[in-house]
Amino acid sequence: MEDCIFCKIIKREIPANIVYENENVIAFEDIEPQAPVHIVIVPIQHYENIMTVPAGSDVMRSIQIAVNKLAIKYKLAEKGFRLVNNCGADGGQTVNHLHFHLLGARPFGWPPG
Ligand code: AMP
Ligand code: ZN
To answer: Which domains does the chain have, with CATH numbers?
Structure first.
């Protein structure tokens, strides 16, 4: 995916502060953090959004493992955190490469805006 900013980060063509990697996933600090901890978790394979990932795929399993490891790494497990997937236009998705936002180290309101 030539014009995809997250594919470029994965290929190390543009810089990012990568904080976690496994065979299917990388995670890096969000460039515009919305919380003291704001990590973007991204599958290495380009999927436009969660609707295009095959059901039961290893990708979702790897994302769950990444969330678990990162929550421990950033000491979020005890107080909790927010895990967000923005999907499509109404969901507020701006980068069309599937990703999850792991946000923590502050309380979050509900419902979201
Ligand atoms: P979304 O709006 O859910 O598609 O989220 C895209 C996220 O990617 C936003 O929070 C952006 O701040 C973040 N972002 C965009 N470009 C970069 C980049 N080069 N490095 C890190 N995060 C980025
Ligand atoms: Zn991509």
So the answer is: 5-104 (3.30.428.10)
User: Model pTM?
Assistant: 0.97
Strand order, beta sheet including 18-21? 18-21, 25-29, 37-43, 100-104, 81-84
Supply the mean pLDDT for the chain: 96
Torsion of CA 76, 26, 32, 73, to 10 degrees: 20
Q: Atom of ligand 1 at shortest distance to CA of 86? A: 3
**Residues framing ligand 1 (Cβ under 6 A):** 5, 16, 28, 30-32, 40, 86, 92-95
Q: How confident is the model at residue 113 (pLDDT cuts 50, 70, 90)?
A: confident
